[in-house]
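Lab notebook: predicted structure, single chain.

Context: the supervisor wants predicted structures on file for every construct in the current expression panel, including those that have not yet been purified. This is the next one on the list. No modifications to the sequence; it matches the entry in the shared construct table.
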Amino acid sequence: MGSINITSARKNLFRIVASVNQTHEP
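Prediction complete. Output recorded below exactly as produced.
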């Protein structure tokens, strides 16, 4: 279960980073 939580956290973090990158794009 620990690995699943880590994978979910990484997915959420990557999704947030992508959203921020899109927002900062001109």
